[in-house]
Amino acid sequence: MAAAKAAKAKFGEFERIARYFAPLAGPGALGLLDDAALIEGPPGEQYVLTTDTIVENVHFLSDDPPDQVARKLLRVNLSDLAAKGAAPVGYLLNTSLPKSRGEAWLEAFAQGLAADQAEFGIALLGGDSVASSGPLCLTVTAIGRVRAGKAVLRRGAQQGDWIYCSGTLGDAALGLRYLRGELTGSDAAAGNYLAGRYRLPQPRLSLGQKLAEIAHAMLDISDGLVADLGHICEVSKVGATIEELLAPLSPAFRQALTADPSLLSLALTGGDDYELLFTAAPEAGPKLKTLAAELGVSVTRIGTIEAGQGVRVLGPSGAALDLAQGGYRHF
Amino acid sequence: MAAAKAAKAKFGEFERIARYFAPLAGPGALGLLDDAALIEGPPGEQYVLTTDTIVENVHFLSDDPPDQVARKLLRVNLSDLAAKGAAPVGYLLNTSLPKSRGEAWLEAFAQGLAADQAEFGIALLGGDSVASSGPLCLTVTAIGRVRAGKAVLRRGAQQGDWIYCSGTLGDAALGLRYLRGELTGSDAAAGNYLAGRYRLPQPRLSLGQKLAEIAHAMLDISDGLVADLGHICEVSKVGATIEELLAPLSPAFRQALTADPSLLSLALTGGDDYELLFTAAPEAGPKLKTLAAELGVSVTRIGTIEAGQGVRVLGPSGAALDLAQGGYRHF
């Protein structure tokens, strides 16, 4: 995905959804606030439906390896299922292909899908293929299943909850810089690690499913920690305080930080990590520790849900950072 | 949708699907041969999933009224549900919008969706909105429900079945010609009727649901009668003979025919009618007659399923028309 613009082009997206599409939303649509919908499933279950579209030269570059485009497309959808606590069932695929895309591109694209189908135990259910004069436009709609009533929504955060995230933060944003040749303080091993985190996110499906019994609110971090925590706060009608020093960082991220300490803000604002961000009662701490050890995924407490609204970030001195000065929305 | 190219750009689509995507298909995908997938639903039910993508300047024109673009997009998906015998549940919407599309366009688009939601009793469940440098690209994924085991597939046609279609044929193809100014033998009333048939197809949802108990094989006619009947024959491993003179024609179509008898072939080959094409046992005849009367939709027998393969069309003299001479695939 190299030098592509990483973030979804979201200018005005939330406002447009609220204005034009939210009035069209039915039961199960969760007010279009959750990046997923719920419909009745087999006895004791619900289906989770989620969908993402990616466009050439917006979300990926024309010369990005097609198998990686396929896998990232699938994984960002699987990550949405993980954030609901759902197990994947299958997916639909829509391709709008310019004529310039030949058989070789399509073959590699399908190989990427096959690899991830095997890795995540899902299969293609259907789709549509059309020709287009314009940039490649790809949509996946993923279907997952979750125990009835157990899907974790964004709106469930409660005052006093502890705030956690999985894995490490900011790697994908640094990876994009590395691929663009903008990250000079990293050796090749660290650079490749970061690039891999950007190119091939790891949907936290096992963790997400376990968290269905524990988390009060959850989403996957695609817009950056502060922005996404802001989404939870907004729909849960709560505030949040997190500490910059608690943000979990990879060794590769720390290496880059040594060369340029200003990169730290990317751990709070960089998008595309697709780690889970969730809140849970403080008593859940021991259970989360056990779970993380069992699954081999780190789970780090980074703050607390409070009364009020908005996200406060405490810097190293304990003083709140000035989010209004920008840099905390990456688009 | 005026002067846009009506047909999906399908060159090689079937071959590409068979080669690259069919190997990825899982249970419920129906081999990607049915324009729909089936997954387990609430007790006694299955969900039908179907999806269609439309692209500006391929499937509709830049200056087409946005509300009609919205409604056609929704209706072609609802028509796929009708062809499975399913009742609509809801839909997901993906929009990839160039910046040139302003608020007025989006508002009218949403109004079109709202109108059809009210008409067909469905609601928006979710979706994704992204920005694009290229042509407008729109995807709807529709979800329907059907009694378990009762979805009508394309593969069920049996030797001796009678072949039926709903409504009238060829209207949409003539409507497109009228909108292009290529239809000179029609008065304004007829022209407007035909244009309406092209712009706003009528998904035969009530009829489709009733046919779930009767039809052996079914689809909706989007590629033209002969091509679509060919799809049924291919997956059912049967042949078919239909009679040109039995094709049901609207008064507006007959008016155009008076001026130009060569237009008759459009009833067999014109796409975009979205009428139901199905096969049923000969004994079902009386039941179908009653059903058609109850629903106020015409149902016309046009031929018979036979052993063998392929579609034979008998002309007025009773001799088979030469399909190999072309004109019977509209793309």
The top level CATH class name of the largest domain in chain A = Alpha Beta
Per CATH, the superfamily of the largest domain in chain A is PurM-like C-terminal domain
**Gyration radius of chain A, rounded:** 19 Å
How many individual helices of chain A?
Answer: 10
Explain this structure.
The first copy, chain A, has two domains: 13-147, 60s Ribosomal Protein L30, Chain: A, CATH 3.30.1330; 154-325, PurM-like C-terminal domain (Phosphoribosyl-aminoimidazole Synthetase, Chain A, domain 2, Alpha-Beta Complex), CATH 3.90.650. Helix content of chain A is 34%, strand content 24%. Chain A has helices at residues 13-21, 66-84, 103-120, 171-179, 188-199, 205-211, 225-236, 251-259, 265-269, 285-295; strands at residues 37-40, 45-55, 87-98, 124-132, 137-147, 162-166, 217-220, 239-243, 276-280, 299-306, 310-314. In chain A, the strands form two sheets. Chain A has a six-stranded mixed β-sheet with strand order 7-9-6-10-8-11, with helices on both faces. A five-stranded mixed β-sheet of chain A has the order 1-2-5-3-4. Chains A and B meet through helix 1, strand 1, strand 2, strand 3 and helix 3 of A and helix 1, strand 1, strand 2, strand 3 and helix 3 of B.
The gist of it:
2 copies of one chain form a homodimer. Chain A has helices spanning 13-21, 66-84, 103-120, 171-179, 188-199, 205-211, 225-236, 251-259, 265-269, 285-295, and strands at 37-40, 45-55, 87-98, 124-132, 137-147, 162-166, 217-220, 239-243, 276-280, 299-306, 310-314. Chain A has 331 residues and is of the alpha+beta class.
